Amino acid sequence: LSKIKQEIEMLNSVLNKTPSSASFLRQTSSAARPLAAARRSHRRSDTRCAVVAPSTMVQQPHPITIGPSKEPNFVQLADGSKMPIVAYGTFLMQQPGATRQALEAGYRHIDTARLYFNEAMIGQEIKEWIAADPANRKREDLYIVTKVFNDCHRPEDVRKSAEASLKDLDCGYIDCMLIHWPDAFMPGVGNDFSSDNIIFDDKVTLADTWKAMEKLVDDGIARSIGVSNFSLRQLDEILKVARIQPLHNQVELNPYLPQWTLVEECKKRGVQCTAYCPLGGPGAIKPNKLLQDPLVAKLAQETNKSPAQVLTKWSIQRGVPALPKSSNSDRIKTTYEGIYDWRLTDEQMKALNGLENGYRSCAPGWKTWEDDVSYAKTAAA
User: Which residues of 306-326 are buried (b: 16+ CB within 10 A; e: fewer)?
Assistant: First the structure.
């Protein structure tokens, strides 16, 4: 414990220097390694170290500003690590060069998954970007997220999936590894994500999967771990057994589907929600009504910004990291360009909040969505 206290003091001394965002990531990354090692050592010696109630020791994630930015450009997570608040999402992205263009545009948070079948391409483009200016570009400048898919929930398959992702990305370590969905598919039976007829795996529990995820941190494959598409009840199921707390819950969030209760209750538990489909979802799956919404168009005109910028700003202004995606080089650049230089007014935010209608862009037929509002009321009673 004294070792941990010393490392916290050292980390705090780094935080007080307010360097540029790139050098900040490098410094805090290296400063946190001894602390993480001390935590792992402590956990191995006392397996009773479990997640505590949010009201006692868990730090709530919150937006912060690093460097010359006018607006918050990072989120400080419950473990003290820093995550860029705007990410480049890569779902359905198969176009060579898109990740490199995103990095050139300024994105430093890259989100992918084993399911996306693009990790090797992304890893290669990250290496090319670093190699183009090695004196000023480092792996530590980036925050890389990937995910273990539904047919890899069994502990041995979690490990295989994570190792395959790390091999393809070839980036040394994963900043955060997520469980892509709480729903376990039976491995090896040809389950199709887009089908309604899924054979689920009843031989593995979320607790089993989470213990395997924790081992990824112990062994240095991932710096942190989290979840995606989890309900509040499912998250609590993890928290009850967690030795290492989940840092993220990546879910669909946008003005049509703000999920206020889920976001707030996750925050109380020290878990940061991050927003996929912040622009309303890929039109290749379901029609994107949000980008064409008359109110969004009106606000884009008022602010002299693109609809994508307005929607991205809505997300990050409520303190939720956003993962806009595009393979179009112009849109990649314009969505990120100047995103920290302006704000939506309170009236504009309120107007966007009023668009809530529960529309989900990502709604596979096999998925049953739980009622977080009712669960939160019951849990609080």
Answer: bbbbbbbbbbbbbbbbbbbbb
Q: Which residue is listed with tokens 């709480």?
A: 182
Query: Residue 177 forms beta bridges with which residues?
Result: 146, 225
- Dist. CA 27–CA 14, nearest whole Å: 7
As to burial, measured by CB atoms within 10 angstroms (0-12 exposed, 13-18 middle, 19+ buried), residue 290 is buried
Which of 113, 208, 122, 209 lies closest to 170, judged by CA? Answer: 122
Quote the crossing angle between the two packed helices 206-218 and 21-45, to the nearest 10°: 110
Q: Name the pTM for this structure.
A: 0.86
User: Which residues, 6 or more positions from 318, have their beta carbon under 8 angstroms from its beta carbon?
Assistant: 258, 263, 349
Residue 26: the pLDDT is 58
How many Å apart are CA 115 and CA 124, to the nearest integer?
18
Instruction: Residue 271: name the closest of 229, 307, 309, 227 by CA.
Output: 227
- Give the catalytic positions in this structure: 116
Mean pLDDT of all residues in the chain? 88
**SS3 of 82, please?**
strand
Amino acid at 188: G
307-366 pLDDT, tens per residue?
999 999 999 999 999 999 988 889 999 999 999 999 999 999 999 999 999 999 999 999
Write out pLDDT tens, residues 161-213: 999 999 999 999 999 999 999 999 999 998 999 888 999 999 999 999 999 99
Tens digits of per-residue pLDDT, 266-284? 999 999 999 999 999 876 6
